Amino acid sequence: MPQAAPSILQPAYGADKSPMSGYQLLAAKLVGGLGGPPVTPMYRRFEALNHRLLLYMQADLVDLENELRTLDTKDTMERGYGVVPASRRHERWANSALAQQRTEILGQIGYKLCQYNKVMTSFVKTHDMPAPSLAEIHEYKTYLGNSRLIADEEAKFLDLPEDLVSLVREELPIAEELVADVGGTTAMAPRLVEEAAVPPPSRKEPESEGGHSSASIKRRPAQGYDSPETLLSTSLSQLALAMFVAVFVPVVTFAIIPDFAGRITVVALVGASVGTALTQSGLVRLLDRGALDWILCAAAYGATMAVVAWILG
């Protein structure tokens, strides 16, 4: 009784359990569903054919572009060399032969340009794909030679390593971490059950002689808060810096601005800016002064700077 070919005796792959052979079995092997040493999927990039197709389409588009330019020149001449403005709506109503030809040319350009862009985009994507290694190509050839799934003539695409691309799927590293987490959780489950079954012993605070617990008598001082002395020192430093800016900046600008009104405007702007900065920093709220005090300070500052502006003028 003659034996069946080795490709027929391979295990089935997929929902149906029917035997496989040929390209069906090769596809199952590339997917990785047959076990054994893996075979890296690889295909030809067809770089030369892509270039040739793009060259042909480019030549056609250049011809159409020249035809469109010729029709545009005729249209310009008919409109008095551009004296009459162009109107697409008027072209549709007039329905002249020139307008019909240009519409037809534009339709052909749109169709071919769309195909041209698609081919170029797909070519760029395949051009950036990684190339298989020589070892992977040798493994693929060895598998095809031993299994004889497809004809030798159709397996010659592997003889062009410079035109091959690899379709290896990168495994996510997070999968291993998830497996480790699941294993660790499974190992911790019995211990958690044992700890939940035995209640922890109740803890009582040692009581002092007066009957109160030591925790209620002795408390730790709160940490992370500045002392009043530190806050006061910081506030005074900020206030001194603000006063220096409010006085120094206008005096410097007085040498540039000669008139008195301009100097007073600068004083008002600088004073308003400093006041806004002090309010947003929280210094006004921290000093806890009344509104009348701040108004008097602003008036004194304005009067002093007005006198300085008048003296330097």
From TrEMBL:
The record's section on Pfam families has: DUF6594
Look up keyword Transmembrane and say if it applies. yes
Q: Which residues form the DUF6594 domain?
A: 23-305
What keywords are annotated for this sequence in UniProt?
Membrane, Transmembrane, Transmembrane helix
Where in this protein does the record put region Disordered?
A: 196-226
Q: Which residues cross the membrane?
A: 239-258, 264-284, 291-312
Q: In its keyword annotation, does this UniProt entry include Metal-binding?
A: no
Checking InterPro entries in the record gives:
DUF6594
What is the top-level taxon of the source organism?
A: Eukaryota
- Name of this protein: DUF6594 domain-containing protein
Species this protein is from: Hirsutella rhossiliensis
